[in-house]
Design goal:
- The chain is α/β, with parallel strands linked by helices and about 350 residues long.
- The protein folds into 2 domains: about 190 residues, Rossmann fold (3-Layer(aba) Sandwich); about 160 residues, 3-Layer(aba) Sandwich (Rossmann fold), CATH 3.40.50.
- It has 14 helices and 13 strands.
- The strands form 2 sheets. Strands 3-2-1-4-5-6-7 form a 7-stranded parallel sheet. A 6-stranded parallel sheet has the order 10-9-8-11-12-13, with helices on both faces.
- The mean pLDDT is about 95.
């Protein structure tokens, strides 16, 4: 198939990934190419050059608009609207069989556009005002909507989801996250360092449990880092930087427990699946999709309960590492995910053809 993948452009689609959305888009592009599809990635122009890039904007917008809070910024909105309008026009004229939309922008889901090119839209966030009502009005024969977990599906459609919407769990390549049979007794946390990821909670809980901790990931919110996280660093808690896949996998594998601390309704939690593939049991806040992803491979504490998370760390350390790997191999592999994507592409294409 000729497939257009339309990405979010806040960050580059390249390693080291800024977050799960960037990882998802990169893995989708690489995986579909490996299966023989003709793929064009519509994304920031400074994304991974190994892909065929059709730039939505010349470079990711954090480079052009470098501030943490973007909501309501008229210059940024105009910049993105112009880029996505032109990209959607190129897709419509490009003879693509399907577009997989990861953009979180309203233009690609307009019915006049999905009537031209069958579209699968993957929603990676809970509902928010700028997109919510556009999504709810976008269910058409040639448009399929996916979310990453059952709680996220209920959040978008509390009255019941339409037939065009379904859960599509994220997937990872288990070979990229090698299983390690034994850890060194330490804990590890990774993700975007920002308040809603709960980095400071992970530090406090690890210290209360008496377990050394290493943090990995991009410092997205420097003020939060300086005020809430950096003062907590010490001999038992260190920051290991922002690492690309192979290096991060090695760091995860040598630890004994992964800390997952969402302080929002986390739609999936790709980092937890990656750690589980390496054999780590997880100590987690029970928020968003945490329990759906982690299941029997972890121990849980109420969201925001640091003392409870410290106890969950102690419990998780006693869980078998093989169970974590087995859960990923059963539910969250890249092949399983890509099989479902291809089925959705066929479904959207067939439905559009019947409606024509």
């Amino acid at each position: 198939m000729r497939i257009a993948i339309l990405g979010h452009v806040r960050q580059r689609i390249a390693q080291p990934f800024a977050g799960g959305m960037e990882a998802h888009c990169w893995q989708l592009t690489a995986g579909l190419q490996a299966r023989g599809h003709d793929v064009t990635l519509f994304a920031a122009g400074d994304s991974d050059p190994r892909f065929r890039i059709d730039p939505v904007v010349p470079e990711h917008y954090e480079r052009v608009f470098p501030w943490a809070e973007h909501r309501g910024s008229a210059p940024l909105i105009a910049h993105l609207d112009a880029g996505y309008a032109a990209a959607c026009d190129r897709i419509a004229a490009g003879g693509f069989d399907v577009v997989h939309n990861n953009s979180l922008h309203r233009f690609p889901i307009e019915p006049r556009r999905t009537a031209v090119t069958p579209t699968v839209t993957s929603l990676h966030v809970p509902p928010y005002d700028a997109l919510h009502w556009f999504v709810r009005a976008s269910a058409t024969p040639g448009h399929r909507l996916t979310v990453t977990s059952a709680p996220q599906l209920a959040a978008w459609w509390p009255e019941g989801a339409p037939a065009e919407a379904s859960v599509l769990h994220n997937g990872i390549d288990p070979a990229a996250w090698p299983f390690v049979r034994q850890g060194d007794g330490s804990a590890v946390w990774c993700g975007r360092v920002t308040p809603n990821k709960g980095t400071h909670c992970a530090v406090q809980a690890a210290r209360a449990a008496g377990v050394p901790l290493t943090l990995f990931g991009p410092i997205e919110d420097p003020d939060y880092w300086a005020a809430e996280v950096e003062p907590l660093l010490g001999p038992d808690v260190r920051y290991g930087g922002h690492l690309a896949g192979d290096a991060l996998a090695a760091e995860l594998g040598r630890a004994s427990v992964f800390l997952f601390t969402p302080c929002w309704d986390e739609p999936f939690g790709l980092v937890a699946a990656e750690a589980m593939a390496c054999g780590l049991p997880v100590a987690a806040f029970d928020a968003g999709a945490a329990r759906e992803v982690i299941g029997e491979a972890g121990a849980f504490a109420p969201a925001g309960d640091v003392a409870g998370l410290a106890e969950a760390i102690r419990v998780a350390l006693s869980l078998p590492r093989a169970a974590s790997r087995q859960r990923v191999e059963r539910l969250f592999t890249r092949d399983r995910w890509l099989d479902r994507c291809e089925a959705l592409y066929r479904d959207a294409s067939d439905a559009r053809a019947l409606a024509a």
